[in-house]
Every structure is written in structure tokens, then in C-alpha cells.
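Researcher: Here's a chain I'd like modeled. Treat it as a single chain, no partners, no ligands.
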Amino acid sequence: MSHQPLSHQVNPRDVLALDALLNQDEVLLRDTVRRFVGDRILPEVADWYERGTFPKEMALEFGRLGLLGMHLEGYGCAGTSATAYGLACLELEAGDSGARSFVSVQGSLAMFPIWAFGSEDQKQRWLPAMATGEAIGCFGLTEPDSGSDPSSMRTFAKQQPGGDWILNGTKMWITNGSVADVAVVWAGTDDGVRGFVVPTDTPGFSAPEIHRKVSLRASITSELVMDNVRLPADAVLPGVRGMKGPLSCLNEARFGILFGACGAARACYEAALDYAGERVQFDRPISSFQLTQRKLVEMMVAVQRGTVVAMHLGRMKDAGTLATPHVSFGKMDNVAMAREVAGNARSVLGANGIT
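Model: Modeled as a single isolated chain. C-alpha cells:
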């Protein structure tokens, strides 16, 4: 029996040739974001990590690339496909999770609720400036005592006889909080949970930064404190009531995360692959040892599998067939995958994996 030679070489960084799933526009966008990450984020991110911060000036650079609210239509937003947005998140998180988090919070948690549920005045006031990065947004849902159970939030807004609202409460673990110009804050009211568009220079509003984190260090994380914050009647998002509002925003953000996790995992795998080819022990690269080879193959398979899931869900979202359980599936499995790949990569790099 004769054996035919393989007509194609297999790329160890894209074994399933997933690039073939992308159209020309998607490849161009992906490559543009990848170059930006290589030029602007990777050279600086170790310092940002060490200082525990993310420069707010990066918002303007993200804006110039069209990454902020990129999957939204109108008001200065790029109006790309959901898959293109996912690919951007993947490449950003291949640089650092904090970069993807900034873009996700701006576009999916702060801009999206204004775009989907806001009044025309709210959209006109905030969305164009947020799309360029001239205005930064944050999203206030999680509280010290209500994380995975947001319906038990204590933050409350009381409408006054003249129509104004008085907002009181505290939110925790808020990305971009202390550099934000506007916060979308969710609060209980006498009429159920409502969303409020809160300029951060409103008296009574403060956002102390959270320090000494051991994870997501290249990112600004804050507490939001609302102490008798008085807002006009038109500060409320008119288009939604109840938990549907904040949960739909979380669904948008989780979609970006399920792509982003693949970027983080890919970066870990590629770092381990490169290191294993260069690190010599017992007079040969450690990539020649079967134990290391097994780790590398398992990482590669996991990254490729997660990326296939992400691409499939992106196409479903573009086709209008994506449901919340699909997003939950992707986020749960891809984040778990990325954590496992990161652990395996650390074991391949040994002591060098902790610097």
C-alpha cells in the first residue's frame, strides 16, 4: 500500500486552519488588532502590571482603531459583526486581560445599555464621545453583598415629588470606575430595578480605586459610592425595567469574554511552545521529551477547540440564533480551558513561568 505525501504543512499555532473560517475583512481586522497589541500593549504591559494600572490614554487609541462599541450601529460606532468584535477581544486578551476588559466594559457594559435602552438625548450625549474614547464609561451592578445574586442589590433610587431621583448605595469590583466620565448604575426603585446614567462629577458620587490585587493587575478596579446623589428625572434609562436590563448587558460582555479567554490561552500556549524549543536540558530542547510534548499537544488541542466554539457562537450571534445558554456554555468552558492551559504553560516554563 502506497502512502501519499501530505500536500500541506500543519501550522502548530493553527493546526485546524481556523483562519479559513474568516473572511477578508475579519482577517484584516484581526491582523490590525494583533499588530496594535504587539506594538502598544506587549512592550508596556509588564510595567502596567507592576504598577497595578491601565493608562486611561489608551481609550483614545482604542477609539482611533474603532474598537469601542464596535459592534453597535450608529452614533459614531463602527457597526461591525459580532464575530469581528469577538476576534478583537481575542487579540486584545492575547496581550493582556486588562486590555480586553477595558474594551468590553466600555462597549458591552457601558455603551450597550445606553444604545439599547437609552433615550435619544442620552445616546447623543454619550455614545459618540465614548466611541472615540474621549469619554470613558463603567457599569455598576455588583455590590459587596450581591455578586452572583444581583437581584438582591441594596442600592436604591427614590423618585422625589419634583421628578428628580436620589440615589444611594455602593458597588464593588467596577472596572474603569475611578477614570470613568459616566457610570451606568443599576438600582432598586419602587417600580423595580432601573438603570441610571450617572455623570461621575455629580455631587455625592465617588469611586475610590481598589489596590493590592493579585489578578487582573493591568486594569483599574474601583468601588462606586453614591451618597445622596441627586439625578434629574431623565437620568433613568427609559427602555427597560427589571433584571432584563443588566443581565442583557452581562450577556453582551460574556460573549466578548468567551473569545478573549481563547486569546489568553493562545498566548500561554505559544509562550510555552517557544520556550520548550529554546530551553535545553540534558543536551537537548525540552520539547523533545514526551512529557513536555504531551503538555504542548493538550494545550494546542484545548485552544483550538475553544476557538472553534467561539467562532461558532459568533456566527450564531450574527445570524440571530444565539441564546443566553449558548453564551453561558462558551464562557464557562473557554474560561475553564484558559485556566488549565495557563497552568500547564507555567509547568513547562518552570521557575521562569512566574516572572
